[in-house]
Write a structure and sequence with these properties.
The chain is α/β, with parallel strands linked by helices and 252 residues long. It has a single domain (11-227), classed as P-loop containing nucleotide triphosphate hydrolases (Rossmann fold). Helix content is 41%, strand content 13%. It has helices spanning 24-38, 52-58, 82-85, 104-111, 125-140, 163-175, 187-195, 204-222, 224-232, 241-244; strands at residues 11-15, 43-46, 68-70, 93-97, 116-121, 151-156, 179-183. The longest helix is centred in the C-terminal third of the chain and has 19 residues, at 204-222. The chain is globular. The chain binds adenosine-5'-triphosphate and magnesium ion. Adenosine-5'-triphosphate binds at residues 20-26, 48, 50, 52, 100, 156-157, 183, 185-186, 189-190, 193.
Amino acid sequence: MLITPNRENLNKIVIMNPKGGCGKTTLATNLASFYAVRGPVPAVMDCDPQGSTMSWLGKRPPTCPSIHGIAAYKRNMQATRSWQLRVPGETQTLIVDSPASLNHDDLRELTRDASNILVPVLPSAIDIHAASRCIADLLLVAKIDRRDRKLAVVANRTRKNTKSFDKLMRFLDSLGIPIIAVLRDSQNYVQAAEAGIGICELPPHKVKKDIRQMELIIEWLDGWRDRRRISMNPGTVHHGGNVTSIHKPNFG
Ligand SMILES: Nc1ncnc2c1ncn2[C@@H]1O[C@H](COP(=O)(O)OP(=O)(O)OP(=O)(O)O)[C@@H](O)[C@H]1O
Ligand SMILES: [Mg+2]
């Protein structure tokens, strides 16, 4: 059982979707790199026995801003609370990369105290079906309350103006869950993954379009404190920022 710390100031971002290959690790590593460049040092927790995030971190050039890695999939530790101890006290952002399959207990445990939950979705019929099951589990099993607005979708490897993309949009719209960004199919992600970096660490002229989408994700993630405050005080009227505004990524 995984236990991550429940600290008031910790932005715990959980990335999940039981569909293999939908972009969980790509999203986790790119977010980690973005937060590392912005500072302070973020932590990534790799809960997937494949250890892809940890091997990405192993390739990271020493000259790049640091990221603290936690190989949570290694279950050789005895005390459950030792997971907690391994997230450094000064960590403000913890990104959790999850495995393709999670039982209900692990799903509850992983999402407990999450400030943000991101579900990357590929726009194919099979993937949309899997994503709808994942979202149903988050709502019904993990008891994520949609009103807390901590759950969002990132459409990945998307070609606009395709039937499957429209279908994905309609499906999410019907659930009232925002698509906060649309990542295009790009070799930039593949190259960054191979080099142990994120796209924000590639030459800016190569990644202009991709960076914009990543910034939209960060902007939404950064709203977690306000969203939490509002969900704890539902009567509060809040003007501004990403709290009340509906997040509309630029698909153009
Ligand atoms: N937007 C993208 N453009 C191009 N390639 C991508 C994109 N997103 C992911 N990929 C590639 O697709 C493959 C699968 O992505 P990734 O490993 O992030 O998925 P995953 O959900 O973590 O998979 P698993 O369930 O096996 O852990 C990787 O080779 C990755 O480089
Ligand atoms: Mg992965």
